[in-house]
Amino acid sequence: MPYMTEAFIKHPLDLPATDIAGGIRSGAFRCEDVVAESIRRARVVQATLNPFTIIREEEALEAARKADATVQRGEGTGPLHGVPFAAKDLTPTSGDVTTMGSWTKADWVPFETALCVRRLQDAGAILVGKTTTPEFAYSSFTNSPRWGITRNPWNSERTAGGSSGGSAVAVATGVVPFAEGSDMGGSVRIPAAFCGIVGLKPSLGRIPMTILPSVFDNISHFGPLARTVGDATSFMAATAGPSDEDISSLPIGFDGQRASRNGLAGLRFAFSLDLGYYQVQPQVEAVIRQAVAVLREAGAIVDEVPMNWTRAVNDEWFDLWCVFMSAFFGNLLPESRHHMDHSVVSMIERGLAMNATTYKRVELLRTDMWRDMASLFRRYDAFLCPTNAITAPPVHETDDDYVETLPDGLFKGLDMTCPFNMLPQCPALSLPVGLSDEGLPVGLQIVGKRYADEDVLAIAAALEALI
Asked: What's the predicted TM-score (pTM) here?
């Protein structure tokens, strides 16, 4: 990690999450020391990259002292006992100002913590800070009216990505081994790839989605941003499972053993560099093809397959996103338009103007997309493509710089993630697989069969060990 060579020295905080918990549990080191180091790093990083909205120093250290006292009394502990983590400013946490990156929320302090975060805390993890997001998590760039720009740890003139950009930076700089994020169009995977860490959009319903006004939304996911696949697996083990708080949550748990590393020999992968329509940067292509070569050298079969998708996938996902924004935040326009990001206002207005029949017809495209993927999954174990078509762009750019159809007919897009929010039952993981010629991270996206989260994690862990 770029910060680990200068500002930080090796510390128990740099161990895998389960090893941190094991060391605290055994008395090899104190939770208070681990959390104090996490807070120290958070303050160093905040001064230059701006990933936090709040750092919970007092609350986190008090929780750490209690965790140490629990060990001293010989009482039972959870699997993540004493492990520091961060949560996105979109996600309510009791007693903490939660703004969603917006001035419209004033200084809202929730009374209740979201289930995903509660489950991490129930497993023993300690919340050390809340992380930045663009307003209402709308963008691939973390830059909000409330908190400003969050920068990339590999190059501070580049974006960290969005919308879980603050969480990605907190993980990439070693502040925490994992952080909570949310993903409606790539908001976990985009910043994970730009910052050189692991990001997982789980299958819809694996982690209950409880923070929206509706429990029937079908493009929204909680997911981990993590230093390693193992840490992402630890996050999933703690947070996955059914709850009546979300009627759409799946009545299945999480099989950590199935998610552990296995061999790659004999596995079959379908691979598309461009999904049939993206312009992919040559430096991204080079790193991705190197990863494909590693898979083949490990005994996997990787077939490059033609895809007949078009930019209609992104355009119609954007229609869904605009309706989402108008339905849940449109009521804020009359009083707060002047405080809001102009792009958010434009999206809300587009959603409010949309014809209901047009909205429903997006399902026809989604159906065609699923039939294409279902056909591939009859022959292959997983699908591979880049996470993003480019490396992290400059912080002053916006999503509007990545919507052009080029003269050759290709789409000048930023991310290659939103197609798989159109297929929400399929887990999609971004794995860092190398650096571009500019020294910026590149992520490989691994898309699994319906609800096969553990299989995707196992594939990623096996490839991670070889990269």
From this structure: 0.97
